[in-house]
Amino acid sequence: MTYPLNLELPWVEKYRPYTLNDIVGNKETINALKNIAKDGNLPHLIISGLPGIGKTTAALALSRDLLNNDEKLIKEAVLELNASDDRGIDIVRNLIKTFAQKKVTLPYNRQKIIILDEADSITSSAQQALRRTMEIYSSSTRFIFACNQSNKIIEPLQSRCSILRFNKLGDEEILTILKRVLDNENINTFTDDGLAALVFTSDGDMRQGINNLQSVYYGFKMINNENVFKLVDTPNPIIINKMIKMALRGSIDESIVILDSLIERGHSCIDIINICFRVSKTLQEVDNETVLTVLLLERLKAKEAKRRETGEDKIRAEAVKMKVVVKESEIQDIIRDVVRELPQGTSHISVKRLVQMVSDSRDGNIDVAVVEKVVNKMYSVSMNVVSLV
Ligand SMILES: Nc1ncnc2c1ncn2[C@@H]1O[C@H](COP(=O)(O)OP(=O)(O)OP(=O)(O)O)[C@@H](O)[C@H]1O
Ligand SMILES: [Mg+2]
């Protein structure tokens, strides 16, 4: 099979930094690696952290920098194994041992390097087998383990290594790299809100950010908020923002319409709630209470669906007809209970929302019209229902 000559690499690979200098973020950790690259004598390392933040990139760049970017030497002295290779005990015994025993002429204070990428997927028996190998050959061969969770590396290996943790990249850092790519690709069909959407959806994962950038550009040639969210399978935070604000103002019905449309588009409740939390962090006027409101909506929604399914609605209607409803005086007590459970510092709450919360707290087993009546009565006494407690 022949490939077209202009076959283009995915941008994540095309723009993978070759040297430690080009890696963005995790400054202190990268500086520590730079010192190792300068002085040599690499310790066994574990680099751990979330996906797409530069762990593999750092392991490769460190190896390059240690070996002065000498391609021939790098080929000879660096062995990189990742999860797609067999990770069983035989690989450890054979491949790694053979490499560790191999003689390579190296500059002063440099060793051969074995990079075990995605090390948390190496079987524990294979990890056990590494213990001796690491010790026996440690004068000539050093290990770098890259993984998402360092606790998946067995204790004896952890104790032989220095452990470095990489953090998620910050928004500014993601933006810097996206702009670097746009610049190099000579792309100027982007808007600020498009870049902000890419930063938001990447959530600190640079690989995700660059991949989304490439897909949006290839798909639409224009990088703006709308196109990013057309492509990315995340609820649009601008819409979530609107939904939260409506719920806050007490326009529950309108808010539910938005929620419905998000669910209809196939977004899962978990995704919606996650974005609610993230959006709430960026809004000054929004606090945990807001998020609770939205969560409440979610509960309500699920309950309604269940009611429709089980025909509970009919049962309730029957109950109302038979006047098996809670008395006004009881509802007052319930309202006090609900209000008491509000987050501290809540000073004002809309009638509509309070009604919602009260009927919700009784799992729908209450007459909303009666609640509304009682709440309104209490409200007319004071605009600040909370102070009624
Ligand atoms: N800190 C960074 N600076 C510059 N580019 C980065 C950085 N982190 C990631 N990238 C980009 O994202 C791509 C993926 O990064 P990398 O393979 O290092 O992720 P990783 O942390 O090893 O993730 P995983 O846990 O999934 O293996 C790189 O090829 C590079 O293009
Ligand atoms: Mg990796």
From TrEMBL:
<keyword id="KW-0547">Nucleotide-binding</keyword>
<dbReference type="GO" id="GO:0005524">
    <property type="term" value="F:ATP binding"/>
</dbReference>
<dbReference type="InterPro" id="IPR003593">
    <property type="entry name" value="AAA+_ATPase"/>
</dbReference>
<dbReference type="Pfam" id="PF00004">
    <property type="entry name" value="AAA"/>
</dbReference>
<dbReference type="GO" id="GO:0006281">
    <property type="term" value="P:DNA repair"/>
</dbReference>
<dbReference type="GO" id="GO:0031390">
    <property type="term" value="C:Ctf18 RFC-like complex"/>
</dbReference>
<dbReference type="InterPro" id="IPR003959">
    <property type="entry name" value="ATPase_AAA_core"/>
</dbReference>
<dbReference type="InterPro" id="IPR047854">
    <property type="entry name" value="RFC_lid"/>
</dbReference>
<dbReference type="InterPro" id="IPR027417">
    <property type="entry name" value="P-loop_NTPase"/>
</dbReference>
<dbReference type="GO" id="GO:0016887">
    <property type="term" value="F:ATP hydrolysis activity"/>
</dbReference>
<feature type="domain" description="AAA+ ATPase">
    <location>
        <begin position="41"/>
        <end position="188"/>
    </location>
</feature>
<comment type="similarity">
    <text>Belongs to the activator 1 small subunits family.</text>
</comment>
<dbReference type="GO" id="GO:0031391">
    <property type="term" value="C:Elg1 RFC-like complex"/>
</dbReference>
<dbReference type="GO" id="GO:0003689">
    <property type="term" value="F:DNA clamp loader activity"/>
</dbReference>
<dbReference type="Pfam" id="PF08542">
    <property type="entry name" value="Rep_fac_C"/>
</dbReference>
<dbReference type="InterPro" id="IPR050238">
    <property type="entry name" value="DNA_Rep/Repair_Clamp_Loader"/>
</dbReference>
<dbReference type="InterPro" id="IPR013748">
    <property type="entry name" value="Rep_factorC_C"/>
</dbReference>
<keyword id="KW-0235">DNA replication</keyword>
<dbReference type="InterPro" id="IPR008921">
    <property type="entry name" value="DNA_pol3_clamp-load_cplx_C"/>
</dbReference>
<dbReference type="GO" id="GO:0006271">
    <property type="term" value="P:DNA strand elongation involved in DNA replication"/>
</dbReference>
<dbReference type="GO" id="GO:0003677">
    <property type="term" value="F:DNA binding"/>
</dbReference>
<protein>
    <submittedName>
        <fullName>Replication factor C subunit 4</fullName>
    </submittedName>
</protein>
<dbReference type="GO" id="GO:0031389">
    <property type="term" value="C:Rad17 RFC-like complex"/>
</dbReference>
<keyword id="KW-0067">ATP-binding</keyword>
<dbReference type="GO" id="GO:0005663">
    <property type="term" value="C:DNA replication factor C complex"/>
</dbReference>
